[in-house]
Write a structure and sequence with these properties.
Oligomer: single chain
Strand content: 15-25%
Shape: globular
Radius of gyration: 18 Å
Number of strands: 9
Helix content: 25-40%
Structural class: alpha+beta
Number of domains: 2
Length: 192
């Protein structure tokens, strides 16, 4: 399955501008009807994004790319960051800790759990490391919550029923329409 074709030049321009603005794209990939959960990646280049998408082989896919930084609490694992994290994440809600310098493809999380007790224990094991902490946006919100939020996320779903159907939450990006030549090298990269 060539999922690269799911992305129009408008989509690529949008994602490229988001990446330029924030320095990373938090990208969640789900495989419907696969019997498992999805994976999330911190993408730092459109080349890495292309690599991620081209590696997908399951017959159905849900791709969600977040505009704004996720896991925004970042820094050296010290007492100050621990206090900020405990204030940010309510006890009893899921959290995840990642190494900040993890590049695509990201290795597994340094820790995750759903209590402050677990968090303190895992945090003690990574003191001094540079990390990012937060909650998976899908643990905070229902998957369908994001679809209409075109300034917050880009979503594309390719689902199989009697035939394949592709659904996107947006497919027009005014800056691309006004200046397509600005994005030509990106389009060339995607088509190589």
């Amino acid at each position: 399955m060539d999922y690269l074709t799911l992305f129009s030049p408008h989509n690529l321009a949008l994602l490229s501008d988001w990446l330029e603005e924030t320095g990373e794209l938090y990208t969640n990939i789900e495989w419907p009807h696969s019997g498992g959960s999805g994976d999330a990646y911190f993408i730092h280049s459109m080349s890495d994004f292309k690599s991620l998408i081209s590696q997908q082989t399951w017959s159905e896919i849900d791709i969600t790319v977040f505009h704004h930084l996720q896991y925004s609490l970042r820094g050296a694992a010290n007492e100050e960051l621990l206090k900020q994290a405990l204030d940010l994440i309510p006890d009893g809600e899921w959290y995840t800790i990642f190494a900040l310098d993890d590049l695509f493809p990201s290795p597994p999380a340094l820790g995750s759990g759903s209590s402050h007790e677990e968090f303190r224990s895992e945090f003690a094991d990574i003191l001094g490391k540079t990390i990012r902490i937060g909650q998976n946006p899908f643990d905070i919100r229902d998957f369908d919550y994001f679809f209409p939020l075109t300034d917050e996320v880009f979503e594309v779903h390719m689902l199989r029923s009697n035939q394949f159907a592709v659904v996107k939450n947006q497919d027009f990006y005014a800056p691309f329409a006004q200046n397509p030549e600005k994005y030509q090298s990106l389009i060339d990269l995607w088509q190589q």
